[in-house]
Design goal:
- Mean pLDDT is 87; it is low at 1-41, 393-402 and 405-418.
- The radius of gyration is 20 Å and the shape is globular.
- The chain has a single domain, classed as Beta-lactamase, CATH 3.40.710.10.
- It contains twelve helices and 14 strands.
- α3 (108-121) packs across α7 (203-217).
- The chain has helices at 19-30, 47-64, 108-121, 146-150, 163-171, 179-187, 203-217, 221-230, 275-278, 284-296, 302-308, 370-382; strands spanning 37-43, 68-75, 79-89, 94-95, 102-103, 254-255, 264-265, 281-282, 312-316, 319-321, 326-328, 331-338, 341-348, 353-359.
- 31% of the residues lie in helices and 17% in strands.
Length: 419
């Protein structure tokens, strides 16, 4: 699979702001205490908007006890808001910084399905091919197409909702899983509905598509994505690891997805269970580059991108899903979640705006997803006609499986998932 690059290979165009200067700048600009916000070099939005954003984000962090986060909003005609808040490591108090690696959960799906669509453009597969042509043992696989898998309309059971598996993951989060082993869990359950008749988020779909890419390309999924997606876009800090390692420097991630609901550091937990559906690592800068490329179809033909963007309702006002891409009130992209981390990377074509949110905890606030709360707060202030939705509170005792988008009425994952 994909290999991590050493930390010295990180791009040099990031501004190197001395820690003390950054802390003081944050305090002056936001009115918050130095340990709460660390400002980045660019703050181009007008001061009144910056103050509103600072206050809204800090309020959420305080009430939800969020350790740290990175947020970036780039609107060419209006300016930039890029800041790091809080800490990357609660033990040492190391401040959050914009260049830290982080696990991005189900934003991984956008990379995997871009790989599928590239194979379509290359004439190696067709969207209406049955998955049985590439992966054996799929129940009803002769009737399930690649298009239905990419659009979350296959009906296959989501392995991350298997209660026995969830208990196993809680008990041993360092265990390694294989893609075929994950399918065995999914296929031990009957399909939820006939292919193409409904929409339901299922990580099983993306695991199957990852296996298809490996079959057709002859490469591991990580190597395929590195060659065909990450390298062409110079996403030098993005990778799909084949183990639990996360490169330095990185943000620690905190979760209560534990047997006794205590808070644990999940940084080094093995994400092999998420793989093609949620196992990637990236950072703020790379996701800033990726979101517009995803929305524009930079790596695809116009025809294939048009098919990708044929979104269908997920049963929630303002929310629809295409081929590995969400449309939330005009924002095109995806969110992600797995134990310890949450993320959003999205583009708003109507204003040429890019939004990235990276949070180093997945501990919900009264059942609400944290990254969506931040995304909602930011967009309510800056793009009020296109607001990122925040899901309603859900019973905190409800088990959920890792890697799902945080749309209302959509099941989450291990306390939330990699949506």
């Amino acid at each position: 699979m994909g290999r991590y690059r050493p930390s010295h290979a990180r791009r040099s165009h990031r501004a190197a702001v001395p820690a003390v200067a950054a802390v003081l700048l944050a305090a002056l600009c936001t009115g918050t205490t130095p340990d709460r916000a660390v400002a980045s070099a660019r703050q181009d939005l007008d001061p009144a908007t910056v103050r509103k954003l600072d206050a809204a984000i800090t309020k959420i962090m305080d009430k939800a006890d969020v350790p740290g986060l990175n947020v970036g909003l780039w609107i060419p005609r209006r300016g930039t808001y890029e800041k790091s808040f809080g800490v990357a490591d609660t033990r040492t108090g190391t401040p959050m910084k914009s260049d830290l690696y982080t696990r991005i959960g189900s934003i991984t799906k956008t990379f995997t399905i871009t790989g599928v669509l590239q194979l379509v453009d290359a004439g190696k597969v067709a969207l209406d091919d049955p998955i049985s042509r590439y992966v054996t043992g799929v129940p009803g696989g002769d009737e399930i197409t690649l298009r239905q898998l990419a659009g979350m309309r296959s009906g296959l059971f989501n392995y991350t909702e298997d209660k026995a598996w969830l208990a196993q993951l809680r008990a041993d989060p360092h265990q390694a899983y294989t893609p075929r082993g994950l399918l065995d869990i999914a296929f031990s359950h009957p399909p939820n509905f006939a292919p193409g008749t409904k929409w339901q988020y299922s990580n099983t779909n993306t695991v199957l598509l990852g296996m298809m890419i490996e079959k057709v390309s002859g490469q591991s999924l990580g190597d395929y994505l590195e060659e065909h997606v990450f390298t062409p876009l110079k996403l030098n800090d993005t990778s799909l690891p084949d183990d639990s390692a996360i490169p330095d420097p990185h943000a620690h991630g905190y979760t209560d997805f534990t047997p006794d609901d205590s808070v644990a550091d999940a940084t080094d937990w093995n994400p092999s269970w998420a793989w093609a559906a949620g196992g990637a690592v990236s950072d703020l800068d790379d996701l800033h580059a990726w979101a517009p490329a995803l929305a524009d179809g930079t790596l695809l033909t116009k025809e294939t991108q048009a098919e990708r963007l044929e979104t269908r309702s997920v049963g929630v006002p303002g929310a629809s899903y295409g081929l590995g891409i969400l449309d939330f009130n005009g924002w095109l992209g995806h969110n992600g979640e797995l134990p310890g981390y949450e993320s959003i990377a999205a583009q708003l074509p109507a204003e040429d705006a890019t939004l990235v949110v990276l949070v180093n905890t997945d501990i919900d606030y009264k059942g609400m997803n944290l990254s969506s709360m931040i995304g909602n707060a930011v967009t309510s202030i800056v793009t009020p006609d296109h607001v990122w939705p925040v899901p309603p509170a859900q019973p905190s005792a409800a088990p959920s499986g890792p890697t799902n988008p945080s749309t209302p009425n959509t099941p989450n994952t291990p306390n939330s998932g990699g949506g």
